[in-house]
Amino acid sequence: MMGIFVLVLFSVIWSTGFSAVPEGSIRLSGYNHNLYEGRVEMYFHGSWGEICSRYFSHLEAQVVCRQLGIRDEAYLARSVAIMDQRYGHGKDGAIIDDIRCRGNELSLLQCQLSFCANVTCCPYGTNVGVICHPPQTIVG
């Protein structure tokens, strides 16, 4: 009897699109990316996608780095916004067409977002990346 309950529960979760990835999560990807450098992608409505913006600045980069876990304001101030295609385009398409932050938000979802209406909303040169500077760990 318990086996049937688990099977039904799994079927319901599978069919409703349950995901372990929280809405608004971000990740860095692209060529030569690492934990603190890369093209910014956001998880939204069940899929990952690029963030594009013509106005991406150090303010938005600070929010990305904060969302990645950097809390020290001195290190956040060193966050760098990248818009030169060095990380390439993502394979999943764009989700955000434009983003504006004040710089003190905890998540990109707290910024002003314009969502993509079609697949061509991310013209060449507008997908965004960041370079975050995490606190250095001294090994002694």
Automatic annotation (TrEMBL):
Disulfide bonds join C101-C111. Residues 26-133 form the SRCR domain. It comes from Ruditapes philippinarum (Japanese carpet shell). This is Scavenger receptor cysteine-rich protein type 12. InterPro entries: SRCR, SRCR-like_dom_sf. PANTHER family: DELETED IN MALIGNANT BRAIN TUMORS 1 PROTEIN-RELATED, SRCR DOMAIN-CONTAINING PROTEIN. Keywords: Disulfide bond, Receptor, Signal. Residues 1-19 form the signal peptide. The keyword Phosphoprotein does not apply. It comes from the Eukaryota. GO terms for cellular component: membrane. It holds the Pfam family SRCR.
